[in-house]
Amino acid sequence: MNITSTPFGTLLDGRVVTAYRMENAVGASVTILDYGATVQSLRVPRRGGSLVDVVLGYDSAQEYAERGDYLGATIGRVGNRIGGAAFSLNGVRYALAQNDGKNHLHGGLKGFDKQFWAPAQQGDSLVFTRRSPDGEENYPGNLDVSVRFVLTERNELRIVYDALSDKDTPVNLTNHSYFNLNGGGTVLNHLLSVNAESFCEADSGCLTTGRILPVEGTPFDFRKAKAIGQDIHAAVEQLERAKGYDHNYCLSGREAAVLYSPETGIEMRVATDLPGMQLYTANGLSPRRGKGKSAYGPFFGVCLETQLHPNGMNLWGFPSPVLRAGQPMHSETAYAFSVR
Questions:
Q1: Of 90, 175, 294, 309, which sits 20 to 30 A from 57 (CA to CA)?
Q2: What is residue 135's predicted lDDT score, i.e. its pLDDT?
Q3: 20-42: per-residue pLDDT in tens?
Q4: Whether residue 247 lies in the annotated active site
Q5: 3 state SS of 267
């Protein structure tokens, strides 16, 4: 495994962002920024052997700081939404930033995606660590977080999350890569299967309500592979509210999803030890320029964000996101690439 680092640019406040690149023996590579522990590039072989960059991103550090939408970033402390931007824990009410209407999204105004992480090479992997101090974004406890990225010789990107807090605190870590196995254009022709019998109902603000709905007989049924665009514009309330898919699936096993591009022949298999996965079809990605002056916009990527069910702090019956003081958290998600 070849691991190198290069300057990636400077933020307006003068801080330098560094890019770390891992390349395996067959030429596949992943580039990760210390700003946001962000997957900036992920190049894998297509049919015929040439490489395709399968994640959306930007060419400069300042674009990541200014343009948002969490492209490739590590998300925390709590991924997805917390209803009413508040939660109660151990008899204390915590008010959070309302950065998504009246709700709290992806860790707040300055979540993990907007923080610098300390990098280290450990064998054939890159590990990014940081301490989220007590009170950061008004979350309790000093939280020590580690995110390990492993690129195997079989073209599998493994992301390993570890965390430890000195106070009880909610934690729901994920990665927010926007995948496009064509390397450009929309993903509506991608074939997707999701190993889930049900999904979480969402309100008009895409906040999970607590109701679990069956996928059978609905446009949300991806148990058999179908094109992402096949039902995305169906006249059903859940799709109309979100202008596409932006919903958590209740996974039926470790094998979460399979994404396939007929155009390039690239297949991506997602596996996780987490119970949920947010399917987001970039409905809110406004038109812009990305890497290499590529055009981005709605449906130009698809996020498969493994997670605990959203709004779990406020909904009875969902897996609890509370990490107890002194109790280590460990989770793994893998994205395995092949060609067919």
A1: 309
A2: 98
A3: 999 999 999 999 999 999 999 99
A4: no
A5: strand
Catalytic residue among 136, 137, 156, 305: 305
Q: Which of 104, 106, 137, 176 is catalytic?
A: 176
Is 306 a residue whose pLDDT tops 80?
Answer: yes
In whole angstroms, give the CA distance from residue 45 to residue 51: 4
Residues with Cβ within 8 Å of residue 53, at least 6 apart in sequence: 41, 42, 43, 183, 291
Contact 291, 53 (CB under 8 A): yes
Q: What's the helix, strand, coil split of the chain in %, to 5? A: 5, 45, 45
| Cα pseudo-dihedral 107, 110, 114, 120, rounded to 10 | -70
Rounded CA-CA distance 327/174 in Å is 19
Q: Which two tokens stand for residue 329?
A: 């958290």
pTM of the complete model beyond 0.90 = yes
- The answer to whether 126 and 3 are in contact (CB under 8 A) is yes
Q: Catalytic: 104?
A: no
Structure tokens at 137: 């974004």
Q: What is the pLDDT of residue 68?
A: 77
Phi, psi (rounded to 5 degrees) for 66: -100, -35
- Nearest CA to 36 out of 3, 62, 13 is that of 62
Please name the residue that has the structure tokens 């979350």. 139
Helix (H, G, I), strand (E, B) or coil at 67: helix
Q: What pLDDT, in 10s, does the model give residues 151-185?
A: 999 999 999 999 999 999 999 999 999 999 999 99
CB-based contacts of 68: which residues, under 8 Å, 6+ apart? none
- Measure the CA–CA gap between 132 and 135, rounded to whole angstroms: 8
Cα end-to-end distance, the chain, whole Å: 25
